[in-house]
Amino acid sequence: MITRWIPLWVIPVLIAVAIGTVWLRLAIVRTSYSINQTDKSLRNFQHEREKIELKLAGLRSPRRLENLATKKFGLTKPRADQVVYLK
Amino acid sequence: MTSPKSTKDPTKNRLTSLLTICLLFVAAILTKAAYIQLIGNDRLEKLARRQFQSKMLIRPRRGVITDRNGEPLAINVETRSLAVSPNKIQNKRTMARLISKATELPYQRILEKLIEKREFAWIKRHVSDSEFERYKKWQITTKNGEAADGILIVKESKRIYPHHELAAHILGSVNVDSEGVEGIELLNNEKLQGKIVSIQAEKDAFGRPTFIDATAANHVRDGEQVTLTIDASLQFSVEQELRNAVLRTNARAGSVIVMNAVTGEILALANTPSFDPNLRHASASRRRNRVITDGYEPGSTQKTLLLAAGLQHGFKLSDKVWGEKGSFIIQGKRISEAESHEKFEWLTLKKVLQVSSNIGAAKLAIKLGTDRYYSVLKTFGFGAKTSIDFPGEISGYLPPKKKWKPLSLANIGFGQGILVTPLQMARAYAAIANGGWLVRPKLVMDSESKTNEQPKRILTPKTRQLLVEALLSVTEEGGTGLKAKVEGYKIAGKTATAQVIDPKSKKYSRSRYIASFIGFPVGVEPNIVIFTALDQPKGVYYASETAAPLFKAVLTAAANRFSMPATMAVDRKLAEKDDSSVISDKLKWSLAKVTTSEQNRALNWVGKDKNGSITWQMPPLVGLSVREAIKKMQGHMFDIEISGIGFVKTQEPESGKPIAEGDIVRLTLSEE
Fold this sequence. Notes:
heterodimer, A: 2 helices, B: Beta-lactamase, Trypsin Inhibitor V, Chain A, five-stranded mixed beta sheet, five-stranded antiparallel beta sheet, 33% helix, elongated
């Protein structure tokens, strides 16, 4: 009786559209989670990088290098006559 | 016979009525639902949005501050802060006690925060890792680091200055919210801070964001990097030398500026006492960038600018003034020389500068007159800010012209009765060093001044040349700046031992001085000017004994850092004296000294060739190592071409042949 008003093929189309919409919505949610996760990883990497930069800056600190040079390697500041400029 | 109505089942009727009521009720709900869905309701829409949408404030990363070579001076690290959501905490007293134990903050203060009817309250910002570990013990967080109910662990960015005190006065500092409050952090706050953006995000049932407003998120802009003009390595050396000088002279404070005289870029700027911007409780006196925010009476370094005014208005270096034999009365006040034994008679203007005669300067100022001297001081930029745009910069004080009486004119002639900043003085001397141009000092690379000020010529080339000649005499025998001299360089500069006003008596103190030296090496690249000052040195307080040696130490550091080749042939007498490997403080000379142990190998002066170039006799270099050979030829403008490795096998020109400055020396070494 229902087929009197709606053609039969419309029903599977409607079902397919409904499933498709739900699937699409789920895919979007999944992708969003994935983006958020990647974003979080990115932030973590950035923070790791910041930590490493801090460590590097500490290692390159002129005070540390001077301490190392004088105390560990026994170096002294060059006497004026030891400085040679090539050009 | 019974009627059909009487045969109707009453239960059925009741059920029908009930069903009808239910249907009507369902219909009403559906109608309302349809109404809400189709027509809408603002209040419900807001409620729903609040349930599944959230506002996120995305705070960008603060820009990094680096030195001119990219060395990071201010960076960020992630840190954790402790906050609470008071509404979600059940047992407030117990929780306050636990937090107090874990954070070592007063119990009462925490309890006050917990009993407030608020969604959010900070407890402690930027918690260290070791302290965070302690939170587990007091059950503020679980073993996995997750917060207890009502407790929030907020991840934040914290500003770190990895080199601690290095360039602290330039960098300034930030507050707990990473907003600049001092120095470059404040000056460039907008640029460093980036753009904070508030974006909408949809949440899922667990409160996790699902859909983020991508367009808005794209507008989040991290803070930009700020590159300073300073050189971190030189800055470190300068700070160290300044600290040593302050300790040695027992001074109250000290300052140094190293500035590129041509570009106005400040290569190093140091103040002592200093502070660590990572710590928040340094006193204001330690934090002050004295070279920009403090004024002082310059004393004798002002005489150079007086001489500049004189030369600009037709005076000559050979013009003479009568030295009054050490005592000159003007408007009933006596002007004397710095030393009572100095009883000068006739002095040329050059000599006035060389011996730093107060009376000579006073007389020149009077001869020059208020109008001419005042206008030259204005062109040097005194009484106005330098456009460095640094927070807290002062203009100094140049008294209005109408207040200049003969006595004040004489006083300003030798640097009293005028207030200047060290930066203004460095800039004025930079104009002499760079050929007569007044430049804008810069601390940030590629920075544009608010006033867009362009360099302007304030001295004629002739005046500049005469000034340099006079300033060179200050560091020569008989001058006050002998100890500023670095062997191998021509140093133009001026000492000043300026009296300080005693705040109690309001008179010039006889025991408190500011010793300063401003100068520059002549004819070297980069063209730098150096200002050194020591505030109230004890014992031997003269600038010639305090600020001048500091200048020498700073110039030596700069020469090493920038590989500034010496411009002068080395004083051979000095070289011969130096036969030891240990160089005494007195004879800590020469960046380009010739070793004299082998006299016959030394470079001998011959004379001048037809073009006027200085000619030398080529020394024998065969058999020497490259280093030794270069050392022999150093301090001159020879182009040295080397091929191979090992020891010198052949040389061109040959030993004993003449060689002029600018000629090519070819050395072939023993191994290809």
